[in-house]
Amino acid sequence: MALYQSGSPAVQNSQQSSNQGYVAGVDIGGTNLRIALSDTTGATFGKWSTSTVGIREPNAIVRLIADGVDTLLHQNAATRANLLSIAAGAPGVTDTDSGIVIATSYLLGWRDVPLRDLLETELAIPAFVDNDVNMAAFGEAHAGIAQGTKNFVFLAIGTGVGAGIVLKDELFRGDNWTAGEIGYMLVPGTSPAPVERGNPGAFEAIVGGEGIQSHWQSIWSEGSTTLPVDATATQIFDHALENNPLARAVLALSSRTLAYAIYNMALVLNCNLFVLGGSVGLHPVLGEATRAILRDQSARVQPRVIPSSLGPEAQITGAVFRAIQIAKTAALSA
Amino acid sequence: MALYQSGSPAVQNSQQSSNQGYVAGVDIGGTNLRIALSDTTGATFGKWSTSTVGIREPNAIVRLIADGVDTLLHQNAATRANLLSIAAGAPGVTDTDSGIVIATSYLLGWRDVPLRDLLETELAIPAFVDNDVNMAAFGEAHAGIAQGTKNFVFLAIGTGVGAGIVLKDELFRGDNWTAGEIGYMLVPGTSPAPVERGNPGAFEAIVGGEGIQSHWQSIWSEGSTTLPVDATATQIFDHALENNPLARAVLALSSRTLAYAIYNMALVLNCNLFVLGGSVGLHPVLGEATRAILRDQSARVQPRVIPSSLGPEAQITGAVFRAIQIAKTAALSA
Fold first, then answer.
1. B96 Cβ under 8 Å from any chain A Cβ
2. Whole-angstrom Cα distance, residue A28 to residue A101?
């Protein structure tokens, strides 16, 4: 799932470079592509973004990435010879050993795309690719709120819901690279009816942005709210803060369902930290309501549920720090 | 939870010893204590068991263990000088780093018992202690159905329910040694009402042996079944195989609830193997009904759900193989 939204091509510059080389972190979203140029300490030397609407072909995406990287290098009076490594997060199941994006959602529609090889061929530097939510979890672990925490779960709640699971200081990926695909979790209140492939899972149908909007639409009536029937999840949560009963009902269901899922994961993993990210997950009222339910639920399982400190920058920050790791590994083996 | 039940003190002998030394595996249950003497290949040279009813004091348990070990050594014309190591599984939360049993259920009532130190002091050999369910999972990993499987979950379903979680070939224990305490998991059909400490969790209240018996009692009526109102879980499952409608209803609820929990864990961990153990979990009809529900549930998550191949020997086998590992580590560092 894409954590970020941004506008048309844009370049931001920051500071003067005096380092030994650059790395690039890339955030491939369903509708947007973002790149950050950084030195090997993680200091940012420029950001670039562009729309990917209508662009799905992997080679075209890789060429866009190369364009963005070249632009950022040029802005810093540098060339590709100064680029050490690149890491990219993609919105799909990703085999990090082979560097293949196995499957993405409909927005990109990728199947078995050798993204790492494509990037390495295009840029002639070491590359790393990962699922976007795992990349965001890596960001929180290395530069965010989860630094120094051995075991934690990063919950990306946007249109849908996904989790990045860090165990013993490493991302845990499971047998088929899909660990943390919790959109289909079954908790009290979710429908246990089988779900067709491609449809949202029972859990994200309540907790994800689309599900929240659907719930709102199903109870909306003129006169009961000042919000339109097509309000967004964050607008609905803002409205809940103003004590609108309809919005409170939507918040109550989504936070209760989220609390149950966190409770279950905390039981299974005995993991005491859950970091909320994604546009919906970052809304303060969701975290607050979820914590209240967990407090009432049990003295047994009482994990910390806190917002991501990197916010919308979690994924691209994770990509930058992964690129730094790749650059250091390459330097050691050179 | 205790996986095994056995009678009064008894010694079984097996074969002639010709090895370099022995190890002992111990299964401390709520009502029974079992010991296996083995060589460093895992071949068994004798088994011993005794009742622990009325015996709760840790030092008394350790003396019983020493008595059993001495008896088994004597039976094999050996002495304590021939004993290399010992490993014991206890029915409670266990810190395997410090060797302390943090808490057990009411049957033993232990709090912060330094069991490893007590065993090492008593027997003057290296010892290892672990939670009984984790020990059983270790048994399945090293000598049972899960050999060679990187990631799997061992589900011990007896009176209550617990899980031993093996990730990347190692037991995963969580932040406070309670990973796999899934008796409190919330799935569709379980009560989300808060549970007092000491009471069974919402999940094990349906899937565990006690919960199955309660359900049976709540729907039992004379004339509707040949089984008594106080039938055991396995008797009820046998009765379900004979198509008794009441017993089928109990089986349907427990297998559906178990299937949901497996489904959730398979999503979170992307783990494709679940091994069923414990007296209730080993009943073939429970596995069969659970597999049928998972098949209907989703094409997305389709883990293998199979019975433990070690059955009631899983835990003590795990203890033996853990003792072998400890003996080898000690030999390497000697």
1. no
2. 12
pTM reported for the whole predicted model: 0.93
State how far the Cα of A31 lies from the Cα of A43, in Å rounded to an integer.
Answer: 26
Residues in chain A within 8 Å Cβ distance of B199: none
Q: Do B269 and A172 touch (CB under 8 A)?
A: yes
B105-122 pLDDT per residue, tens: 767 889 999 999 999 999
CATH for the stretch A10-138: 3.30.420.40
Contact of A185 with chain B, judged by CB distance below 8 Å, is answered with yes
Pairing of strands B32-39, B44-51: antiparallel
Q: Is A212 on the interface with B (CB under 8 A)?
A: no
**Could you tell me which residues are beta bridge partners of residue A65?**
none
Q: Where are the beta strands (DSSP E) in B22-169?
A: 22-28, 32-39, 44-51, 83-90, 92-95, 100-104, 111-113, 127-131, 152-157, 161-167
8 A C-beta contact, residue A276 and residue A307: yes
Q: With a cut of 50, which residues of chain A have pLDDT below it? A: 1-14, 17-18
Q: What is the mean pLDDT of residues B221-250?
A: 96
Alpha-helical (H) ranges within chain A are 58-75, 115-123, 132-143, 204-207, 209-219, 233-241, 245-269, 278-281, 284-297, 314-333
- Name residue, tokens 């709640």: A157
Q: Which residues of A touch B175 (CB under 8 A)?
A: 150-151, 270-272
Amino acid type, B279: S
Task: Give every CB contact of residue B218 below 8 A, 6+ residues apart in sequence.
Answer: none
The CATH code belonging to domain A146-309 is 3.30.420.40
pLDDT score, position B199: 79
CA B102 to chain centre: 17
Tell whether B302 lies on the interface with A, counting CB pairs under 8 A: no
Residue of A83, A94, A23, A12 lying closest to A58 (CA atoms):
A94
Residues of B within 8 A of A102 (CB-CB) are none
B188 CB within 8 Å of a chain A CB: yes
* pLDDT for the residue A78: 96
Best residue in A133, A257, A268 for a mutation probing chain B (most B CBs within 10 Å): A268
Pairing of strands B152-157, B273-277: parallel
User: Contact, B216 vs B206, CB < 8 A?
Assistant: no
**CATH assignment, B147-309:** 3.30.420.40
Quote the Cα angle for A287-A291-A292, to 5°.
120
Residue B95, CA atoms < 13 Å, CB-side half-sphere? 13
The DSSP annotation for B230-275 comes to: T--HHHHHHHHHTT-HHHHHHHHHHHHHHHHHHHHHHHHH---EEE
Domain coordinates in residue numbering, chain B: 10-138+313-333, 147-309
**Do residues B133 and B125 make contact, with C-beta atoms less than 8 angstroms apart?**
no
Cβ atoms < 10 Å from Cβ of A291: 19
Tokens of B260: 């949901």
Closest A-chain CA to B192: A188
Topology annotation, domain B10-138+313-333: Nucleotidyltransferase; domain 5 (3.30.420)
